[in-house]
Design a protein that fits this description.
The chain has one domain. Helix content is 36%, strand content 28%. It has 3 helices and 5 strands, in the order αβββαβαβ. Strands 4-3-2-1-5 form a 5-stranded mixed beta sheet, with helices on one face.
Length: 107
């Protein structure tokens, strides 16, 4: 199985297992997405400080957002940015803000 096929399968599996309105975060860049089942989208709803000190936060966000959008587009899932993105102080604050939502974390 090619790397492209593995990424596509992983994206489909993640989207399918997230509940509608569920939340997924990427700790490496601090991106927080929410699933919209009706519109088949992942919406970037916030950020928290990233965990990779080797690159700037802005570069981490831009790189992971671009890659996430590209990979999910391959399986028919749109990735968008919400108006008025929230910047969290920590992953714990992001989780607390989404306390009634399921959080799936990618490490």
């Amino acid at each position: 199985m090619s790397a492209k096929t593995k990424h596509t399968a992983w994206c489909r599996a993640l989207f399918d297992r997230l509940p509608d309105d569920g939340v997924w975060a990427i700790p490496r860049s601090g991106l927080v997405f929410r699933k919209n089942q009706k519109n088949k989208t992942l919406v970037l709803v916030g950020t928290f400080p990233h965990q990779d000190e080797k690159i700037s936060h802005e570069l981490a966000i831009a790189g992971d957002f671009f890659t996430t959008r590209k990979q999910f587009r391959r399986v028919g899932i749109a990735v968008e940015k919400a108006a008025g993105l929230r910047e969290y102080a920590s992953v714990d604050e992001a989780i607390a803000d989404q306390k009634n939502r399921q959080m799936v974390r990618l490490s």
